[in-house]
Automatic annotation (TrEMBL):
UniProt cross-references to Gene3D superfamilies, sorted A to Z: 1.10.3730.20
Predominant cellular place of this UniProt entry's protein: membrane
Family as reported in the entry's similarity comment: Belongs to the drug/metabolite transporter (DMT) superfamily. Small multidrug resistance (SMR) (TC 2.A.7.1) family. Gdx/SugE subfamily.
Protein name per UniProt: Guanidinium exporter
Chain segments annotated as transmembrane: 33-50, 57-78, 84-102
C-alpha cells in the first residue's frame, strides 16, 4: 500500500507542478487553487508512504516521478524541446529510480 501511495503522491506532484505553471505566478485563481490542493495531497501521501518506506527511497522516488512526469508534460503539452541531452537526462533519472526501488527492502 505504501508504494501505491508513493506513486500517487508523485503523480500529484506532477499535477501541482503543471498547475503552478498554468497559474502564471499565482495570478490565476483556479490553477492556483489546484496547485495548493494537489500540493497538500501529494505531501500527505508522501508522509503516509514514509511511515513504512525509508526516507531516502521514498523521497527519491517521489521527486523522480515529479521530475520525469513534469519533463514529459513540458514536452507533450507545453511544447518544450525534446533534445537528445534532455532525453538522456530523463532516462538516467528513471534508471536511478529503478535502482533505488531494487535496492530497497
Amino acid at each position: 500500500m505504501a508504494w501505491f501511495m508513493l506513486i500517487l503522491a508523485g503523480l500529484f506532484e506532477v499535477v501541482w507542478a503543471y498547475s503552478m505553471k498554468m497559474s502564471e505566478g499565482f495570478s490565476k485563481l483556479t490553477p492556483s487553487i489546484v496547485t495548493l490542493v494537489f500540493m497538500v495531497l501529494s505531501f500527505a501521501l508522501l508522509a503516509y508512504a514514509m511511515r513504512s518506506l525509508p526516507l531516502g527511497t521514498a523521497y527519491t522516488i517521489w521527486t523522480g516521478i515529479g521530475a520525469v512526469g513534469s519533463f514529459l508534460i513540458g514536452i507533450l503539452i507545453l511544447g518544450e524541446p525534446a533534445t537528445a541531452m534532455r532525453m538522456l537526462a530523463a532516462v538516467l533519472i528513471v534508471a536511478g529510480l529503478v535502482l533505488m526501488k531494487l535496492s530497497s527492502t
